[in-house]
Please model this.
Amino acid sequence: MSETLLNVGVAQVRMAKEPTVLRTILGSCVGICIYDRMKKIGGLAHVLLPLDTANGANPEKYADTAIPLLVQMLLKEGAKKEFLSAKIAGGASMFKFESNVTLGQIGDRNVEETKKMLAKLQIPLLEEDTGGNSGRVIDFYLMDGHLKVKAAGQEKIYYKV
Amino acid sequence: MHAQIKQRIESTINNLAALPTMPEIASKILNMVNNPDVSFKDVAEEISKDQSMTTNILKLCNSAYFSRGKEITSIDRAIVTLGIKEITSIVMVIAAKPILDKFVIGYDLGKGELWKQGLMVANLAKKIAIMKNRKDISDVVFTGGIIHNVGKTVIAIYVQNTYNDIINEVKTKNITFNEAEKEIMGYSHQEISEKILEKWNFPPVLKAIVRYYSEPENAPEQYKAEVSAVHIANTISIMAGIGIGSDGLYHQLSSKALDTLKITNAELEELFAKIPEMGKQLQDLA
Model:
């Protein structure tokens, strides 16, 4: 079966099953990839900000609302909580900025809140490729749950599921 | 420094035919709107000479992004309804798309990413101008935002050849990606953009925007506000991953630009938070 590439935009949550590949491009945003290794379905949340300030009006935008939403979507599709695991990428920062500019820390804050939410939902975080100053193009392969991260001209592959 | 690459870039920028071409109508309109002696009839007449431009303008006037509700079916009506400055923005969107809507090697930008970023930065810069009560510059920063990265299309091939040296220079000397471009290739993409705008006969304010958008502190005093708006718009856009390439976030977010426009932390975060909604509004222009 051929792979279908599905692009996930900023502040979007997408779910699919094998053999789809979910792709997104990250700067300071964080991409959260959650996979059910038995059912071979998974989803990607591309979060822009750590905490919901819109009272649920746009749950796909924030780490603290997008992650529970993605988990709910997967469970509804037949995934089992005990077979879910997560990999995350992104959360880069500007190379140079002054410490009084709060937006400068948004990448770190996104990563921090993402981890907090995964821990709260008891989804094991198996791999992370976060921080630094590079942009990342990530491809999440639902045939086996591996994650390819392309950053600064180099590729890394994370296999753990 | 790669002397040979510098030489090759030099011969490229000294050969006008090797630089992207802007339709003549766009340069004409851009210079006309800054001339107080030009009437809207003159502008309408100029546009009407170009049939495909006319068709495209009418299409965009009725797009979700530019439409004011009523359907527009003539250029005269378009100018009356939207104003000459908004029509200029529309002309620029039409004229710049074929130049920017392509795959850019070296910077590793997929097809359409540079173009989508141009639209996003244009829109953000305009929002910043309006937010800070500078409606007087909202149209010029929109145009500047669209084309601020045009030099990348020309210099990309050389970045492809020297990428590892550039990124190495960034890390060892703790300088931004564009400073390293200049160190390694003799030119930054901003300098190439400026050359391209010279060829196009574009006004000085737009040349200042493309040349200084990543170092607003060095912009000529009279254009600091315009350059700062595009600097901030570009920074927010790449942070959100829109138009981010192999140069990543190896850039600066200038506090001086924030000071110039008196943008607060809360305003900056608000702009960043609205990017997904703005992306949707811009969809029918991409």
Notes: The interface with chain A takes residues 108, 113, 163-164, 167, 170, 176-177, 235-236, 238-242, 244-253, 255, 258, 265, 268-269, 272-273, 275-276, 279 of chain B (CB under 8 Å).
